[in-house]
Amino acid sequence: MQYGHFDDDAREYVITRPDTPYPWINYLGCDDFYGIISNTSGGYCFYRDAKMLRLIRYRYNNVPADAGGRYFYLKDGDTVWTPTWKPMKSKLDRYECRHGMGYTKFSSAKNGLAYSQTSFIPLGDKCEIHKITLTNESKAEKNIDMFSFIEFCLWNAQDDMSNFQRNFSIGEVEVHGSCIYHKTEYRERRNHYAVWAVNTPVAGFDTDRQTFLGLYNGFDEPQAVLSGKAGNSIAAGWSPIGSHHIKAKLSAGESKSFVFVLGFCENPEDQKWEKPAAPGNAGIINKKPAKAMLEKYSTPEAADKALAALNDYWKNLLSKFTVDAEDKKMARMAGVWNQYQCMVTFLMSRSASYFESGIGRGMGFRDSNQDLLGFVHLVPERARARILDIAATQFPDGSAYHQYQPLTKRGNNEIGSGFNDDPLWLIFGVASYIKETGDYSILDEKVPFDNDDSIAETLFVHLQRSFNYTINNKGPHGLPLIGRADWNDCLNLNCFSSTPGESFQTTANFESGIAESVMIAAMFVFVGPDYAELCRRVKQNDEAARAEKAITEMVEAINKHAWDGEWFLRAYDAHGKKIGSKECEDGKIYIESNGFAVMAGIGLEDGRAAKAMDSVKEHLDTPYGIVILQPAYKDYHIELGEVTSYPPGYKENAGIFCHNNPWITIAETKLGRGNRAFETYTKICPPYREDDSDLRRMEPYVYAQMVAGKDAVRAGEAKNSWLTGTAAWTFVSISHYILGVRPSYDGLLVDPCIPSSMKGFKATRHFRGADYHITVDNSAGAEKGVKSVTVDGKPLDGNLLPVFGDGKAHDVVVTMG
Ligand code: BGC
Ligand code: NOJ
Q1: Is 489 considered catalytic here?
Q2: Residue 452 to residue 402: CA distance in whole angstroms
Q3: Model's pTM, two decimal places?
Q4: Rounded to whole angstroms, how far apart are CA atoms 508 and 481?
Q5: Is the CB of 356 under 6 A from ligand 1?
Q6: pLDDT tens digits, residue range 465-523?
Q7: Could you tell me the end-to-end alpha-carbon distance of the chain, in angstroms, rounded to an integer?
């Protein structure tokens, strides 16, 4: 069944009942302050780093689910409720949650009182705004007690959840009027604090959790609210919270609005105090930055204005690529939600979601390059900066730190290097950036290796080192060595771990110098031509020729050693045994090497590409998408690593790892099979499963990393929504390859490959300073092939739209057939 619906005009997903099969979340923030908010107002916010600077506490994997957030309690006489349903799970007369672009709105009603909450992070400020309006819909006057509630995190989220012997003694707050300041650790080594304020006088407040809730009560039973009286408590250690008690008198029909602000403030070291601490007196913090921030949002009108500015920001971003088609599910994903998710993966990487705890993972070298594909057309200047950050963590031999820290932008020593696909992703990312922007100057940027300026080289040299790394690290079959793993982090062929808890990703008990990856080989053939092309464009023709020769050799090695008869092999293990072959008992066929080989064009002429895709369909396809391998591994194989550690049907062991389904989609477009390409696209595309939400469970408006495969107990159940490379790759598959609007070095290519039943579509694309208004006519019922193109009414030779760069709109009509 469905738990809501899309409102396409408003670009919102409207959740119509609060008890969704899993918390359905949204993201707030576009610059450096971010929040996660669920459909019951759960979640948390942080400044820049979800581990180090978290403002409010959130309890992952708690019971009941989704514990912690910004809660508002209402009391009308003896009736007490939480208008966003949780935490009291109140029975509401109405409930609606609208997740929009960078904001979330709630509206509900109970007891004749309507409630609305609009939550967002304004552009350019480090705060969440929650504008709340109460409307008396009854015929009599109401005297409402409203209580706000947040629980402060003592900044470092990991320490906050573990170091209780210290943390229960360090909590400090200040309260001044309607402003609650959280200043734990401000006296010593921090120069920042949080403020939780409301723009109206309060009747009382609480900052001590036990006083507000009661020691043995949950969030659903706060004693201050139930008694209608705040304790005016000042936290000293234990668990500081922020709660305002507001009394609102509302005559019949009357509305009142309140603006709550939860902000992060910093002071320069020499201006930290209004009054420094003295014996017997706690210091008074300098509140200037807080006051300036609160002043900006002190009226509902000011909050509305900030929201309007945010809406304009998103409207402008999403005008860069729009889609109009009969198939609304595809159009809204390609035109709106998929791009929105791409921006979120850009901002969050893999740090904070309801599956990523915000304390674990840095920025992935591979992940960040892939994420770029999904947002480079939206914010090219930020893509440029991101590329330079990533490249600066590369080692001089072309290999790369697998991850880097977002705050320091330095490579992460704990994970280190040795994921041998990593270097190639940099070529891919840079080529995508240049195809989008035409900005070759990026290749001349001096970029350090391993963040060491003394060994900086141009970005072009970085690409050369990336390319050479693969050439210099080949195994016995002339295929690239896999190292610790390739794209499949769980194919750990040198790991040989039998120790519980040992990291599959960083352990190498058996440096074979033998295990090879066909996926990296195919990827080399896929991205290598871009390197060669860039060489030619910067007039390094000899280097281009050398690159082309290396690619040809790789194709030969693949043809000779990586074709299994009906599909491409996946790898050779540390003993030189085949992986992903009909000779194997389990794991006979894998998706990755097949997708990449066909995307690279290998076997297109001799029918092997079509055969490989047919095999993928025959062995890996399911109603919910294509599984990563078959048959699932039943047992742990020490020589294969983490892939075999998962129960059958989950994650890398035969789950539908959505990230790589678009590779098959793209591969199918290479074969011109528009019907099949679209089928693979729709199977993992969330709106197509909106009415199956009880099984799928995740948000119908975003992709999930994984859907349980056919061997799993709950086949079709999704997990790990939001922060996944699926976002960028599905966007590429639908926009570049199915709709076929694809940036290339010399212009915008239009090369659709769509289902024969699709009669056409319209798309607008901003590209290098001009707008292309494209109409595709497929009354011929073709799957691929462009018969004619006109631009501004004039026929064009071929299907490469020129770079106009004139700031104007151009009408393009494409006739398929
Ligand atoms: C997961 C992978 C992930 C890796 C690195 C593994 O446990 O299965 O999907 O990429 O961890 O974080
Ligand atoms: C998730 C990781 O973020 C990504 O880098 C990797 O390719 C996939 N898992 C597959 O293992």
Answers
A1: yes
A2: 17
A3: 0.98
A4: 14
A5: no
A6: 999 999 999 999 999 999 999 999 999 999 999 999 999 999 999 878 899 999 999 99
A7: 39
